[in-house]
Request: fold
Amino acid sequence: MYPHFVAVDASSYEDTAHPVAIAWSLADGTIKTTLIQPEDDWEDWDYALEDIHGINQDTLYQRGETSWSVIRELENDLEQPFLFCEDTSRTDLLFERLYEACGRDVTLETGHFGDELSSQRDLNEWLMDTGFQHLPCDERVRLMLTAWAEDNK
Reply:
C-alpha cells in the first residue's frame, strides 16, 4: 500500500499560473496523469516551459479534461483527501485555481513528500541529482514513489 503522491505542471512560475497537467499515484502504485483544459480566464502562459513539460496550449484545448472532470476523478481515486508533493505551497495554489474554476473550496490537503521518507538521504541533493524540477509531473510522481519504495523495503 503506497501513500498518494501528486505533482502538477503549471502554465508558468508566476502567481497567476494555472494547472496544465496533473499526475497522482494510487494506493497500488499506479500513476494516473491527465492534461487540464484551460478555463476562459486562465490566460497566463510561459512558452519556455513548453520545453520542460512538452505541452502547448493547442494540445490542452484539444486533449485536456475539464477542471470538473479532473477533480472528480482525483477525489474518487483517493481513500483519504491527503497527498504528498514536493512543493506544498505551489501545489496548493494550483489546486485553488482548479477548484475555483468549479466554484468549489479545495477539499484536499498536501504534505511534503520528504516527511514520508525514513532514510537519511540528503533530499535537496537528491532533487538536484534527479533533475526533479525539470521533469514532467508524471515523472516527478514516479520518482517520489520510487524514493518511498526504496525507503520502505
Notes: The longest strand covers residues 19-25. The mean pLDDT is 89. DSSP finds six helices and five strands in the chain.
